[in-house]
Specification:
The chain is mainly α. Helices cover 72% and strands 5% of the residues. It contains ten helices and four strands; from the N terminus they run ααααβααααβααββ. 30% of the residues are buried.
Length: 278
């Protein structure tokens, strides 16, 4: 009986241990950034992201999710994916731009805090999985991984001519707005061997692991930008299509003599309020 009780306690504590390890690496990243060790500081934020995934996985597998664990996870994420990337970018780039350039870094950290507060207070997620708004770990890791990418031979040979001073100023703004948006961002596909989607998820995850071993510096920053851009482009296309559908429905309703009565308010699949007659 005592052995089962101790195992149950270990299952409950394990996710929080991953979460605290996440906090450790986020804090260590800030220490290294203040010492000019930007490469290690960048990758410790990525390690924090891996641990953030593991704590959720451990909680689901052990059915040990608690309100305490959820709140602790959000507080830690503000540090590891909000403050730590902002401090890294401040020491890397913004400290040389003037006495008030730190405001851009603060704005990014603020957006992470707002994103997590909205996520915790929200009662719904996309019906097909994923997130409303860019997840804070994806935003923090994308911002942090610029420096390793900038040290690659490909960057030095092909991309140094781009206006990176201006790009790095706008990058925290764009990532912050993406986090606060209602754009749908998908999750990584789940791994399995009994279905086509599971096999696809296995291929995707194994490919990412392979790149993380052999070409991590050149792979993950473009991957993060692609993920951010994909969500925004997909959201823009859906908005354009929905506007066309709304105009078509309004025209049909105006010309249909069988539809009468005041309009009623309904919610679409994204939780937004829409009018419907009849």
């Amino acid at each position: 009986m005592s052995r089962r009780r101790s195992m149950g306690r270990a299952i409950i504590v394990l996710p929080s241990m991953f979460t605290l390890a996440n906090l450790f690496f986020g804090f260590w990243s800030m220490v290294l950034a203040s010492q000019g060790e930007f490469y290690l500081a960048s990758w410790w934020i990525v390690i924090a992201g891996v641990l953030d995934t593991l704590d959720g996985l451990a909680a689901r597998m052990g059915k040990a999710g608690t309100r305490f664990g959820a709140e602790l996870d959000s507080l830690v994420d503000v540090v590891s994916f909000g403050i730590a990337p902002a401090v890294l970018m401040y020491h890397l780039h913004f400290a040389a731009l003037g006495p008030f350039a730190w405001v851009f870094c603060f704005g990014f950290a603020m957006c992470v805090a707002l994103r997590l507060a909205r996520y915790n207070s929200s009662d719904h997620e996309p019906s097909n999985g994923g997130f409303f708004g860019l997840p804070s770990p994806a935003a923090g890791m994308t911002l942090a991984l610029y420096y390793p990418f900038s040290q690659t031979p490909f960057f030095q040979a092909q991309l140094t001519g781009l206006p990176w001073n201006q790009i790095l100023v706008f990058m925290p703004i764009v990532l912050g707005l993406a986090m606060l948006s209602n754009v749908h961002y998908p999750r990584l596909p789940r791994i399995g061997i009994r279905s086509a989607s599971g096999i696809y998820g296995l291929i995707v995850n194994v490919t990412m692991i392979g790149f993380s071993i052999f070409s991590r510096d050149i792979f993950f920053f473009p991957l993060g930008l692609t993920y951010v851009t994909y969500g925004m482009a997909r959201g823009a296309v859906l908005v354009f299509l929905e506007r066309g559908d709304d105009e078509y429905e309004d025209e049909d309703e105006a010309n249909d003599p069988l539809i009468d009565g005041p309009p009623t308010i309904v919610k679409d699949f994204r939780g937004r309020r829409r009018r419907r007659r009849g």
